[in-house]
Amino acid sequence: MRRFFLVLALIMPMSAQAVEPDEILSDPILEARAREVSRQLRCVVCQNQDIDSSNAGVARDLRLLVRERLVAGDTNEDALAFIQARYGDYVLLKPPFKPETYALWFTPPLLGLLALGIGGDILMGSRKRKKIADLSDDEEAEVARIFTSSSEGDHR
Question: Does the reported pTM lie above 0.70?
Answer without folding.
Answer: no
